[in-house]
Write a structure and sequence with these properties.
The structure is a single chain. By secondary structure, the protein is mostly helical. The protein has a single domain, classed as Phosphate transport system protein phou homolog 2, domain 2 (Methane Monooxygenase Hydroxylase, Chain G, domain 1, Up-down Bundle). About 80% of the residues lie in helices and about 0% in strands. The longest helix has about 35 residues, at about 1-35. The two termini are about 35 Å apart.
Length: about 230
């Protein structure tokens, strides 16, 4: 029975990684749809959300069935508990990628009033965090866990800087309000994806150590709450 249970847990991990791969691609494609002004790609990201939702439900069902087996190995229990938390973060990342895709559709064909250099840096760092959070899960790598948490601070700094810059543009020129609002929302969406990647990293730490800890700072003072 124990060998069968361990095989089922390994299968669960593989299904979770398939969902992670899907969501990581959705995040990357939503950003590409924005920068390339590709409405077709944006629509494809939106369509994939149904698949992410179904995978979320399927994996949750697997977790519940495994818990019914009452395993005696604490580490196996922590893997299942981690999977149940991680799929919730993945489902939210998928939803937020859809929000970025919708912003891309809204801005389709419209020239940007400013270079997207800072937003691009934020997007690249966010995608790196998502990738490394799940690499940490696969490798049980606590060094990568801490790297993800450190990168979250950098994303937050970029978010605050972009927020202030875009609001200044809007105050200076009302004609820029619509596009600047969309870009502001995209920056906020990226910051939220980074928060969910951080949640994943922290759950990997719990899975390996058995201790629940908040490893990244919560920036509630400026209106951002990771939880």
């Amino acid at each position: 029975m124990r060998g069968k249970f361990e095989a089922q847990v390994r299968d669960l991990e593989q299904e979770l990684l398939k969902m992670a791969t899907l969501v990581e691609q959705m995040v990357a494609d939503s950003w590409r749809a924005l920068t390339e002004r590709n409405a077709g790609l944006a629509e494809e990201v939106i369509r994939r959300d149904d698949l992410a939702d179904q995978m979320d439900l399927d994996i949750e069902g697997r977790c519940m069935r495994l818990l019914e087996l009452h395993p005696s190995e604490p580490h196996q229990l922590r893997i299942i508990a981690t999977a149940m938390k991680v799929i919730a973060d993945l489902e939210r990342m998928a939803d937020i990628a859809v929000d970025v895709a919708r912003a891309a559709k809204a801005l389709h064909g419209e020239p940007f009033f400013k270079p997207l250099e800072d937003l691009a840096r934020m997007a690249e760092l966010t995608k790196k965090m998502v990738r490394e959070a799940f690499t940490a899960f696969v490798r049980r790598d606590l060094r990568l866990v801490r790297q993800v948490c450190a990168d979250d601070d950098q994303v937050d700094k970029l978010w605050y800087s972009l927020r202030d810059e875009l609001m200044a543009y809007m105050r200076k020129d009302p004609a820029l309000v619509t596009q600047a609002t969309h870009l502001l929302l995209v920056a906020r969406y990226l910051e939220r994806i980074a928060d969910h990647a951080t949640n994943v990293a922290e759950r990997v730490d719990y899975m390996e150590t058995g201790a629940l800890k908040q490893l990244a700072r919560a920036h509630t003072a400026e209106g951002t709450d990771r939880r």
